[in-house]
């Protein structure tokens, strides 16, 4: 198995394809399967991109992370990994939820090396109580399929998805839930006590092609808080999708793929 030893962790990673590197950062509790599940279909018919999937400390197969105490140190580990795997290369970043928060942390110091950034349901405000979020709701449901589920399955799907059908529940189970089950809960609770970076994360402007994918029904991080940083991204497409919660990449897979392709086209055009 490929691991990269950095100062405070032994980070698991997978590399698929060749070309311009794209570093994929998943959210809090799942693992790299979340990003791999939604991003690999994007590259099914296009070449020239080297996808780097990692398991953040406390999640997936990454180990020896006990000395990490807060989001600052989580960020340091990720930056060290990037510099170890692709030294002196320019790259793209894709971050989902907490991964999107880390992307903004990386940008603060290393924006010159970054060719573009995409955010999937990004965490904007670390403090849960301060977020503007809609209530959890179900937008559409396949009642016939739901009747085949156990009470526990129904409860879990209903609290994390807004479009309940067989395909979405299957993907959520394999791409999200599988990782969450392996998470180090005690470690993650420790990090959440120092969840916010110790520095202001949105000071700089990032004038390269970016993409914000926001779910209208996202009850975890919401979509409205992202508008506060809109002006910091003059070349960003901000897209709010209906029938999309915090697992937008699953619930709106077709639009997700199209918008990612459009973003990659803009990155190439910008850097040609």
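Sequence proposed for the structure above (272 residues):
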């Amino acid at each position: 198995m490929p691991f990269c030893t950095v100062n405070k962790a032994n980070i698991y990673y997978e590399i698929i394809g060749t070309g311009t590197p794209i570093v994929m950062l998943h959210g809090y509790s799942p693992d790299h399967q979340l990003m791999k599940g939604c991003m690999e279909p994007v590259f099914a018919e296009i070449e020239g991109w080297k996808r780097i999937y990692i398991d953040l400390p406390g999640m997936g197969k990454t180990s020896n992370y006990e000395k990490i105490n807060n989001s600052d140190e989580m960020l340091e580990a990720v930056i060290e990994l990037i510099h170890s795997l692709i030294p002196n290369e320019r790259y793209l970043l894709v971050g989902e939820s907490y991964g999107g928060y880390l992307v903004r942390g990386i940008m603060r110091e290393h924006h010159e090396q970054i060719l573009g950034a995409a955010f999937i349901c990004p965490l904007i405000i670390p403090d849960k109580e301060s977020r503007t979020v809609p209530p959890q709701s179900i937008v559409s449901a396949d009642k016939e399929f739901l009747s085949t589920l156990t009470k526990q399955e129904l409860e879990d799907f209903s609290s994390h998805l807004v479009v309940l059908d067989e395909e979405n529940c299957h993907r959520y189970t394999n791409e999200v839930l599988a990782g969450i089950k392996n998470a180090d809960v005690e470690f993650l609770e420790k990090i959440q006590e120092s969840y916010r970076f110790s520095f202001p994360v949105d000071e700089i402007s990032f004038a390269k092609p970016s993409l914000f994918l926001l779910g209208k029904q996202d009850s975890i991080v919401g979509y409205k808080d992202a508008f506060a940083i809109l002006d910091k991204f003059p070349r960003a497409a901000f897209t709010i999708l209906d029938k999309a919660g915090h697992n937008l990449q699953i619930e709106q897979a077709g639009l997700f793929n199209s918008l990612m392709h459009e973003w990659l086209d803009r990155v190439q055009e910008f850097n040609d």
